[in-house]
């Protein structure tokens, strides 16, 4: 097959060029033709009337004046000439190209490409040719290259490779999808993506490759999901519907519509013979804990045990206290196991757990110690799942015979990212807040108003409430001029001396010191907590009603929203002040967005658009694949479609036997997504 041939067969590829191409992960003809341009130079002739300010444009016109040259210093010049383009008399400016003076003659036709200044009616020329445009492509591909290979050389190699591979291309997308979505055939799409005859062809080529790339990715996700569910088996949790209904009715408030929907999704999973692998997303304060409680109670009514793992002792204790209150009148034995539980108390818990006398165990990573053994673990819930490594989560799961698994997160993740990063999971979303919860009033203020803000904070403290002050750095930095926690702690301690206690928390404190500081704040001993972003996501301090975020422009929208969620947990009106002097438009937009909405999902979508998928999670931890063509922000509809199609393929018998899907099965196998043993 020509497409599997080495690029060395191409004219112009010697030893050095082959080495450079190899650095670009191009070794075969196939590798080369699947290296897409990251943009195209557009040389289509445009009408200046329709061209926006500062856009790149190609026009054809007649020279109307003698060119004038201004020398600006050594090897620097500016050549200006008037050109009539249609009905517009414009100026064409050539920088450092004084030699064009000898070529430009009044009455001659010239083709110009450059940046259009609509206000001053000037084109700053980057490319030009004398005479009308008669040849050359309207679109020229631009590739990301390395070493000594230039664009012109690479285009020639691409042209040869496409001609060689033309009759040797295998179509992988099933025919029914090709027809349903009117997708361009592979040979045409490859030609158009590299050398499009017009804008529409380029658009159709991109549409085809976006879908194919997302379909392939989703096939891997769905195959993995199927394998996890069916090969591993799972707990069939035959819970008592009537008992669960009675428990729900005993809760201090009625469930929201979103909570009811999510509980139904989880309940349906629990009744299945497959292992549940579900991500539960819910904004801060949306009521994920009560959903966890209902799920744990259902598990216990089926004669099984449940476990809830939280990232810190404070959060674990908080969950234990809440569940103990809700389960109060029901015969359920709850235990708390953290690093602080030692000696005889710990030993007793371990013995009771192994005998099945403890129904629900709540704790930190202490739950995954080797000597922690359950008798019949049916459900594992991990709170703030991103705080635990994959191995830690797996160890807890392995303490039962493939128990159902529910991951919870208060970080609102845009649906496109959830489908991509957690594609092998089912995703449930609580997108509704409990009735009567007051929105946090958010204000954006400039740094010269710091004194006024502290005065406002003092009013809240005088009313017996507490405040957070968040800042991005711990100690002074020569490179970044941002207020730091240590300095701010010192200032506020001095200001409130004798009136209110100020605490300090940051990442360099030992975990015991962090726990103790947070506990003092939770119990009201500290009135003002100055902290970096280590403040726990789920910590519940209902008495905290004021938050000041210093240098707020340093944080992404999602992080700002997470921080803001530390307040507003009690019945009093809460406030969040963003202290920021953003220099960029994006920074200003972030601050404005925060003052306009308290909806974490709206902000998450906005954050995704402002920052991109890699930066949303942090590039290294994201789990978001790097796509050649697809863009998760703009191609979300294609992603939804690809997920639906991949799910139907993977779950159909035909996919595993049909000759038409052989290519997809082979690609799945090559990707290492699964062993191609039939998953049934």
UniProtKB/TrEMBL annotation:
InterPro entries, per the entry: ATP-dep_DNA_helicase_RecG (IPR004609), DEAD/DEAH_box_helicase_dom (IPR011545), Helicase_ATP-bd (IPR014001), Helicase_C-like (IPR001650), NA-bd_OB-fold (IPR012340), P-loop_NTPase (IPR027417), RecG/Mfd (IPR047112), RecG_dom3_C (IPR045562)
Organism encoding this protein: Metaplanococcus flavidus
Entry's EC annotation: 5.6.2.4
Gene3D superfamilies: Nucleic acid-binding proteins (2.40.50.140), P-loop containing nucleotide triphosphate hydrolases (3.40.50.300)
The reaction(s) this protein catalyses: ATP + H2O = ADP + phosphate + H(+); Couples ATP hydrolysis with the unwinding of duplex DNA by translocating in the 3'-5' direction
Function: Plays a critical role in recombination and DNA repair. Helps process Holliday junction intermediates to mature products by catalyzing branch migration. Has replication fork regression activity, unwinds stalled or blocked replication forks to make a HJ that can be resolved. Has a DNA unwinding activity characteristic of a DNA helicase with 3'-5' polarity.
Name used for this protein in its record: ATP-dependent DNA helicase RecG
UniProt KW DNA damage keyword: yes
Record bears the keyword Acetylation: no
Residues in Helicase C-terminal domain copies: 463-609
